[in-house]
UniProtKB/TrEMBL annotation:
Keywords associated with the record: Cell membrane, Hydrolase, Membrane, Transferase, Transmembrane, Transmembrane helix
Biological process according to GO: lipopolysaccharide core region biosynthetic process
Annotated organism of origin: Leyella lascolaii
Localization in the cell: Cell membrane
This protein's name: Sulfatase-like hydrolase/transferase
Lineage of the species this protein comes from: Bacteria, Pseudomonadati, Bacteroidota, Bacteroidia, Bacteroidales
GO cellular component: plasma membrane
Length: 614
């Protein structure tokens, strides 16, 4: 029996050895994980650290100690040193980014670092050691590093502390060592370690599996879609965020390389410039079912309806978006590839490249996709091909360089930059529209609707839900005013204006108590109507209508055709009179050769027109 007990005690003792062999590493790296998480907590009500922080951090730190314990002592010391440098540096950078840019490490931030020159790098390093930064959350990490260094110096050079204090510490150490050497104490400690590690492994298993799934995506779109899932991975440590950022950038780089390789292959056979000025307005998160122009009972689109009554705005009644995520939509809409064609979106020319090659002056005014450090992976994924310097130069002649709280700021950008235009212009306005949070999308003095206005329309909603619904409709109403002012800028030009949002939006549709989007893999008719049905219209100036009455007739004849906006480039090229290998009339909504029977594949999978209830 004694042999069994001894064998059991020896086995349990083994569990402590990885920590014993790397005691300082275990303590300080665990502390670093905690400090790094506390330091990046937003200063907002209800902010909290990752729920499983302490147990999963224990598991990760213990796993590193096991790996280190398996190494020869000489190698182990070097490995620990390298890990110290890597982990402390990553944490410092992560927390610094949070303090300076209100964001931890992201793919966009890493991409910006890659585009930083020597002067900017020097300014960055100088700002890191400024008093304001040191006294911020960054100081917590620095304090831990200093404590670690002082501890290491005491162990290496004990004479740097007073002799009497050193003797007391040594005596305390001897007593602790003697107590810990007792068999039952070592066994008890081993049992505690086993219990804690097993418990941590069990409760951390889901996040580890989710992390593996996230890091296994074959392209940036797949990774992005994984992040829309409810139980996606929590990258709770700076090191994980850095690895993910490097990984996401590597995936994006593959698509960028393919796009860059194709720049010189873009070919235009001829261009008649049949529309001297083409304006494309891309809205955001706009459900057709919240547009009064399409029958919504609240007066959300008075200005667009006035334009429609004047006879030169034609609304299209059956238009859907190919995706319900902005970044996916942008890739689909900018690429001349349509759903169902072979290859990927990045294997085809971007319509902006084609227009530049044809001789149009292309202006891109965005209120979302400027390169910025704190953008989410969704914005990074949607904007990386627009913001890459080489691709941006291939697509655009003129761009704005700042974002605005409200979309009307883009009007000032246009007024400031329009002098750069040429005889033939393609102007793209990219709005923030009705993007969540809805309340922030319209100025306080421009809000018309209140929660109480929906008591009869939506009696099933509570006061908070009605307030959110009113915020959304106020954003739609404000969007109406912005769009009207954009149209007004081209009223006296020979111009045609196309309006489309990227995708729809849920906002308490039917009996649903839900807003935003579900990103469900299974698309039914209800979800398709809410998240993929979009408003779409074309307006032309009086001069344009007089000179090209056949285009206005074609617009009116096509108003009820089925259309999906992945084919938008072909409509635009048709309006411009561009003849190119990538232009296909069967995808051009206004062409007599338009193929209305083409399957409209939502997310590339679900045929919209075959959904039961459509």
């Amino acid at each position: 029996m004694q042999k069994v007990v001894k064998a059991l005690c020896d086995a349990l003792t083994l569990a402590v050895k990885p920590i014993g062999a790397n005691a300082s590493f275990f303590f300080f790296m665990y502390a670093l994980g905690c400090v790094s998480s506390w330091a990046v907590l937003p200063d907002s009500k209800g902010a909290k650290v990752y729920d499983n922080l302490y147990l999963e951090l224990l598991l990760d730190t213990y796993a590193l100690c096991i790996v280190l314990a398996l190494l020869p002592l000489a190698v182990r010391r070097w490995a620990r040193g390298l890990l110290y440098v890597a982990l402390y540096t990553t944490s410092l950078v992560d927390v610094y980014c949070f303090v300076k840019f209100q964001s931890t490490l992201t793919p966009s931030m890493l991409m910006l670092v890659g585009e930083t020159d020597t002067r900017e790098a020097g300014e960055f390093l100088r700002s890191c050691v400024s008093p304001g930064v040191i006294t911020s959350s960054v100081g917590w990490v620095l304090a831990l590093i200093i404590l670690h260094v002082l501890t290491a110096l005491r162990l290496k050079f004990p004479h740097i502390i007073p002799h009497r204090t050193e003797q007391r510490l040594r005596e305390a150490g001897r007593r602790i060592a003697a107590f810990a050497s007792e068999t039952y104490v070592r066994a008890a400690a081993g049992l505690a370690v086993v219990i804690m590690v097993v418990w941590a492994a069990v409760v951390s298993a889901d996040n580890k599996q989710a992390t593996w799934k996230l890091m296994s995506g074959t392209n940036i779109g797949e990774v992005e879609h994984t992040l829309t899932e409810k139980d996606h991975a929590q990258l709770y440590l700076p090191a994980y965020r850095l690895v993910f950022s490097v990984y996401a950038n590597s995936l994006a780089a593959k698509q960028i390389d393919r796009l860059i390789a194709g720049i010189n292959d873009v070919r235009v056979d001829s261009c008649s410039y049949s529309s001297p000025t083409i304006v494309l307005i891309i809205g955001e998160s706009y459900s057709r079912h919240h547009s009064a122009m399409y029958g919504y009972p609240m007066p959300t689109t008075p200005r667009q309806q006035r334009l429609e009554r004047q006879g030169r705005l034609v609304k299209f009644t059956d238009v859907v978006s190919p995706h319900n995520l902005t970044s996916f939509v942008f890739k689909s809409v900018f690429s001349t590839r349509v759903e169902g064609q072979k290859g990927e979106w990045c294997d085809y020319p971007l319509f902006t490249e084609v227009f530049r090659k044809a001789g149009y002056h292309v202006t891109f005014l965005t209120n979302q996709f400027l390169p910025k450090a704190h953008e989410a992976v969704y914005d990074f994924s949607g904007g990386f091909f627009l913001n890459n310097p080489t691709l941006s130069e291939a697509q655009f002649d003129t761009r704005n360089d700042r974002l605005h709280t409200y979309d009307e700021g883009l009007l000032d950008d246009y007024d400031r930059l329009k002098g750069q235009g040429g005889d033939h212009n393609l102007v793209i306005f990219h709005l923030i529209g009705q993007h969540v949070s809805y309340r922030q999308r319209s100025p306080k003095d421009r809000k018309l609707f209140k929660g109480d206005d929906y008591k009869e329309l939506k009696p099933n909603l509570n006061a908070r839900e009605r307030r959110i619904l009113s915020d959304y409709d106020n954003a739609v109403l404000y969007n109406d005013s912005v769009v009207d002012r954009i149209v007004d800028r081209f009223r006296n030009d020979d111009a045609v204006v196309i309006y489309m949002p990227d995708h729809g939006e849920e906002c308490y549709e039917g009996d649903m108590h839900f807003f935003c989007r579900m990103h469900s893999a299974e698309i039914d008719a209800r979800l398709a109507h809410a998240e993929f049905d979009i408003p779409f219209w074309i307006w032309c100036s009086s001069r344009y209508a007089r000179r090209r009455p056949e285009v206005l007739r074609a617009m009116r004849a096509a108003r009820d055709r089925r259309f999906m906006t992945d084919a938008l480039p072909h409509l635009l090229m048709g309006l411009a009179g561009i003849s190119a290998p990538c232009y296909e009339p069967r995808y051009d909504l206004l062409s007599p050769d338009y193929d209305e029977t083409r399957p409209r594949l939502l997310k590339g999978v679900t045929d919209y027109d075959r959904l039961e209830g459509i």
